[in-house]
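Hello again, I could really use a second opinion on something today. I've been staring at a protein lately and its backbone has me curious. Please have a think about how the structure follows from the sequence. I owe you a coffee for this, so here goes:
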Amino acid sequence: MRRNIFLMRWIVFAVLLLGALVLTQRVADRHDRRLDLTEAKLSTISPETARILSRIEDKVTITYFASERVPAGFQNLRRDTIDFLEEYERTSGGRVEVRAVDPYTLIEDFVEEKKAEREAEKLAKGTNGDSEEGPDDSADPGTEEALATNDLTATAEERQELVWADDKKKALAGEGVPELRGQSIQDDSFGYVNFYSTIEIRYLDRDPQYIPVHQRLEGFEYELASRIVKMTATDKPKVAFFLGKKDDVIELPRNPQLPPDMPPQTMHVYEPLLRDVLEEQFTVEQIDLTEESGIPGDAKLLIVAEPHLLNDRQVYEIDRSVATGRPTIFLVSSATGSLEESTLGLSPLEPRLNTIFEKWGLSMGREVVSSLECGTIEVVRSQQGIRFRRALPFPLCPQVRGRGLNQESPLSQGLASLVFPFATALQPNPLVLEQNGITFTPLATTDKQAWLSHFTPTVERGMMEVPGDPSRRKTFVLAALLEGKFPMRFRTGDPIPRWKSTLLDENGDPGTAGETAAEIELIPPLESAPGRVVVIGSADIGKYAALSMYRQSSSNLSFLSGIVETLALGQDLVQIRAKAPIPRPLDDTTSSQRWWASYGNIVGVPIAILLLALCRFLLRRTSARAYEARFVREGG
């Protein structure tokens, strides 16, 4: 009886447990919810992404090309990416279709299709009465590389299949899906494995966008959203680019096939940034800020690079453009220079923008910022008749890293370091900023030991050595974001500066002297609109020389391209870009603090554990003796 009752209870319990599991699964499928415990909500689709997806007019297809076999470290990425894309699809409300494809399956299907075609050709020959021949020892035309890697003992059919597989791999690579190679550790053995990890985004009949090497989930939501915004836009957003110093050019290597008397070819120093980075995503219109080449009305962003000796009308056009709410980026400083050892030196710049900046609550000095936390330049040295290149620190290129980069701003969040060649400090005026309702957010700040150096054409000793006066050493802001309604420096009702004027006023300057009242155009009233302005105190940060020299040691290119994207493509992308792990860098410490921390861990912790063990031993021995004495006393 007890056995039967136990068996009956066990069966009932198993049935109830199975029913509870089925019910829980049904409820979970119907009401799918995820709990994101990360501080920045990295695993949750943001509301800004949902708004971007809601504006899509047709379906977007996202294909994740991922092989089943991946190197160590990619297994979790593959699973997490698929989970993230599935949530992306659910959030879109049917506007996004997600697929996960193993390219090796596509390759196998392609090979099987080719084999079927060959069998069909053989069958057709047999039907036509042709004599059936044995297998051909020569494979069909294919790549020499594929045949060279084939096993010599393989049959002709196997070698042909390898050629077909190689052709399919090359076709995938040509489409933007390259085969990758990574380290793998399996069965206590170390080796390499070929794999795929690529994201493809398609929309209508437009050229697809690719993330050729998808290797992290951090920032993945922003990468998808920015590409979808660009693909679904009717036209590429227009960026107006103004170069203030037209003669700042670099000479291209001479083509030996051209005539020797042909003048050398040149390009301006920002052209690689525009051509290789911005023009893939935006329509970049280079303007001269003249009557014939003004700021386009449909420009989503204005970039003012290396302004120098601007006239009043150019300053007015820039001032009015910012006041209308158009996002603007200033690459401005009081000096520019060369990073080549043979031509090392500085040239002065006179932007003539301080009148605008001071109206907002910002000013720039004439001094150059120096810091021992800096980038390097390559110099040629000779030792025992052997010439070699050596990297030496160059204080005139201050480097910002760690706490110097604002990790709460989406424009500088997640960056490792930035190098600002020949930089000028930005000095905010809190009182004027508050009166104008403008928010000033530092993006990059030097270390506490930076100093200002007076401008000289040659690099002098004072620019390279830390000053002995502690009061001269402090932190300086090198890049900042300003947000709000920007007041115009030019007042309503004043005459608009002329583009070109041969008339001189009473001071001998071009102006409106001699014109009748009807000929003078007055500044119309303008209600300032909310806008965003990024001021970077280095005109050289985006030049070819700096980008090429510091491509390994800094994130200058990512910083500039990220600012352009976030300002030109909308506020939603700014918020999405802000989703990144929040770093917790250590506070600045002194040498004595580091000494105590090091030896405290090495020596202090073991001693503390020994003392604790000794105290516990003495307490246990005292307790044991007391117990023994009490036992003897009670027993006696």
In short: Residues 103-195 form one domain. The longest strand covers residues 386-401.
